[in-house]
Specification:
Length: 80
């Protein structure tokens, strides 16, 4: 589940919202991935795309989001 998302990020602009449940990353079911493998699949070379299957709320059909990867600057601890 997406905990927080910065409105300035491309993921937000592409339609990823807080509380969305990510079901799949590039067609790989998240339920079958370790946390480190899921993170590895989300990260990638800037300019490449990642495809997410996302569930907004129970009962809805999943939606597909295509997001271009960018370098996300890290915020100093405590400034989130």
């Amino acid at each position: 589940m997406v905990d927080k998302i910065d409105p300035q990020l491309k993921a937000y602009a592409a339609g990823l919202w807080e509380k969305d449940g990510i079901l799949a990353i590039d067609n790989a079911a998240v339920s079958t991935l370790s946390a480190s493998d899921a993170i590895r699949r989300l990260r990638g070379k800037p300019g490449t795309e990642v495809t997410l299957s996302v569930l907004r709320k129970k009962g809805d059909d999943p939606i597909t989001l295509r997001i271009s990867r960018v370098v996300v600057p890290e915020k100093p601890f405590g400034l989130h």
